[in-house]
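Need DNA starvation/stationary phase protection protein's 3D structure for a figure. Predict it.
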Amino acid sequence: MATTNQSTAPYTVPGLSTENGHEVAHTLQQRLHALNDLQLTLKHAHWNVVGPNFISVHEMLDPQIELVRGFVDELAERMATMGVGPSGLPGDLVQARTWDDYSVHRATAVEHLAALDLVYNGIIEDHRDAIQKVGELDPITEDMLIGQVKELELFQWFMRAHLENSGGVLQHGGARTEQDAAESAAQ
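Structure prediction for DNA starvation/stationary phase protection protein:
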């Protein structure tokens, strides 16, 4: 009888050793957690944004949320293809994450965008680290992550365009926390 709690299969994709395939999939699990967190954070900002730019930011976030949800599904399906069961459970996400909860609640559009800019910095940097980690083992997964980074960087540019002056200086430049970024952008 099969064990119902087993998270790995004794196989992976053709051309990779099971060990390498499972290693790649385990790297993807942290990206899965990060993107699940991002989609929830973006929806939180979508619900809590106020002020003169409300509608433009509110509507700008929805397509981002949908694409990130698609990234989550893509990562989970890649993991399953590699013989590792993905976890989308909230408890697993909270236990495994290396970042704090998003710290901005009801706030203006520029406050949320400044805070989200820092969130995107973390997501993109960690995705790039994952690209480096899986690149030598699995170019298929590497390509998938590269495509995701391309889109995440585009979203970040959309947000930054609301926050920069004509010289390219961000209103929250140098902020180290989401709350500091929000406060700097509000001034």
